[in-house]
Specification:
94 residues; 10 Kd Chaperonin, Protein Cpn10, Chain O; mainly beta; globular; homoheptamer
Chain lengths: 94, 94, 94, 94, 94, 94, 94
């Protein structure tokens, strides 16, 4: 498994579907399409200007909303994951 | 529902109308058209350089003025919302 | 009425006239035309790097000099106003 | 009169002449032409990162050297002035 | 051998293979191809704003994931190495 | 005479010659031609983020090496001088 | 001799050879060709945000690896040297 470095997060995108489990509908024609994803692992943690570790706001298994085209795609054991910076996560889906 | 991450805010745009409830008239030919919106949810909070949580200036149900083209559009249960950074909100309408 | 967010200021531009009340003459052919305006409302206040509220230098009813093309125009009850960042105000007219 | 905002300074350019009072000769073909000017008023003062007021290095009536094309021109009672940021002043002429 | 300067790291890329030892499969058509590598040496250490040495998150012999095209290639005794900034390492492979 | 403002320095370029007094030879075809100069006056001093005056590293009469095309040229009593930022001085010639 | 200003370093590039003394082979077709060099003199020292002198990581006679095209070339007594910022040095060759 991959432990993301710094303030990065490893996520798994949800399958594309018209109406998601969270009741979130993602229109086809949106300029900047957000997409649901599950947080698989948070990173080793970034550091602020004083060298203090920054806490993550998201945690494992959180359902999050991310931009469709951000991050770096990796494949682990045949499955697709994405490594994104936590600040590129738009929100947490309750 | 979505909890925006960091200093982001979830808003619902007001219907386009010539004369809004707050007496705010938005001309058609303005270069950068601002638009009324309602704050639906504030985010998890950003952090300043010392890692201290930054308070939100806006709160739920505030009527605010935002730029017409900023933010990321999302649809929840068939309704349109926008996730914007709080610093892109121009003002609060009393 | 609108309460500008952060270090923004709501202003009303003075009518264009050759010789203003303050004796300030604004030439037609200036490259970057400044323009007189009245401060209608100061914002909720910006914050410095330590999260401390920054005081406004201008206050309500101050006559100020701003760049002609800066800010965002809004109409309230049929009158034109502009929301500008305080640091885009060039000076206060005594 | 105008009180410049922040770290700005109100200056009056010296008349163009071949040999200035300070013995400073300004060549016609210099790529970036500096020009003599008199400080008419210093601003309300900028603030450093800790919110502390920054002192001005120049003061009223100082003869200074500025770039010919910087700043914003304003006319007060028929006379031309320029509002420049203090850090765009190249030097003080003794 | 080379001791990288500052927050840089000396790495040796893994041989290109379809299925790596860590079970990490790297698709041919990924827009930004990440690639496995081994950390050979960490640098002399960067410094934060207060001049304090920043610890490395990776250490010698860590298997890491880096962007395929980042860093500077060097050859030592006929073998290819890469010098990358630690913040360009995407994650550590357990 | 001119007192440069902030961290600026007033210098006088050395005459162009193939082999300078310091044994420094400046090739004609160098991409970025450095050039010898004499420090005539240091500025009023810049300030760091805490508002503390920054000391100058160079002092009057130092022979320095600067980029040939940097700074702003001024003429004083018929002689050419240049005002440069101290950080654009490459080195001091012993 | 030249004393570089600030965090700059004066270096002398090693002669181009296929296999260097340190066993470092530099391929002809590398996109960004690094090159061996000897540190001849470190600078007067940079300063961090608090005005404290930053120590140099490299010292005189260190063999270092730098980018082939960085820095400013100078000739001293007929020999070629380069002035580079210390942070553009990739590593120290042991």
């Amino acid at each position: 498994m991959i432990k993301p470095l710094g303030q990065r997060v490893l996520i798994k995108r949800a399958e594309a579907e018209q109406k998601t489990a969270g009741g979130l509908f993602l229109p086809d024609n949106a300029k900047e399409k957000p997409q649901e994803a599950i947080v698989v692992a948070v990173g080793t943690g970034g550091r602020d200007e004083n060298g203090k570790l920054i806490d993550f706001t998201v945690k494992e298994n959180d359902r999050v909303l991310i931009s469709k085209y951000g991050g770096t795609e990796v494949k682990i054991d045949g499955q697709d994951y994405v490594i994104v910076s936590e600040q590129d996560i738009l929100g947490i889906i309750d």
